[in-house]
Design brief:
The chain is mainly beta. 12% of the residues lie in helices and 39% in strands.
């Protein structure tokens, strides 16, 4: 007997294992338990300046240096990233929660998605960068792939910056800080 809840729904469809597929709401609830770093993807160029808080970021390769970000295709940022050809991945520090809230559309003060709410550095590519981020990767769009509801942007890193801030983490629908355990 498993100690996990069976997330396979009963909508009449069957997957390759002969089971009903997982319902979207169950998948989202289960994925919400994954602790992830919080990042702010920014872009600027002919299609405008956009920023969006994301949790789906990963390294792809060190040679050449590539990173990926996943963004819902309904977001206007998708067209901007496609058209501008450049984006920055700002790995937010624990003190950057206000940036995450603004660019997820839920600021405590100011307007959602408003760059005027915060201070910025200009990167080597001319992109807006978070001044005290944990790390920043400035990228040229290398490739994109549509998968389900999202577009996966793979960026070739043209500049990388390492800060000293502890990372901001998101888990179980809340922002969190990393706690260091004794003996580490």
């Amino acid at each position: 007997m498993s100690r996990f809840k069976d997330l396979n729904g009963g909508n009449g469809q069957v997957n390759a294992m002969g089971k009903a597929p997982v319902a979207a709401e169950d998948f989202i609830a289960a994925m919400g338990l994954a602790a992830t770093g919080v990042s702010l993807v920014t872009t600027d160029g002919p299609l405008g300046r956009y920023g969006l808080t994301v949790s789906a970021v990963s390294s792809v390769s060190a040679e050449p240096p590539l990173v990926l970000v996943c963004i819902n295709r309904k977001s206007p940022a998708v067209a901007a990233l496609d058209g501008n050809g450049l984006f920055a991945v700002n790995l937010l520090g624990a003190e950057n929660r206000a940036y995450a809230e603004t660019f997820s559309g839920r600021p405590r003060a100011g307007r959602p998605f408003d760059f005027g709410n915060h201070a910025w550095l200009e990167g080597a590519t001319g992109l807006p960068l978070v001044r005290d981020a944990t790390a920043v990767f400035e990228c040229e769009t290398h490739q994109h792939v549509d998968a389900g509801t999202h577009r996966i942007f793979i960026g070739r890193v043209v500049a990388a910056h390492r800060g000293s801030a502890e990372p901001l983490v998101y888990c179980n629908r809340a922002f969190r800080r990393i706690v260091h355990h004794e003996g580490n």
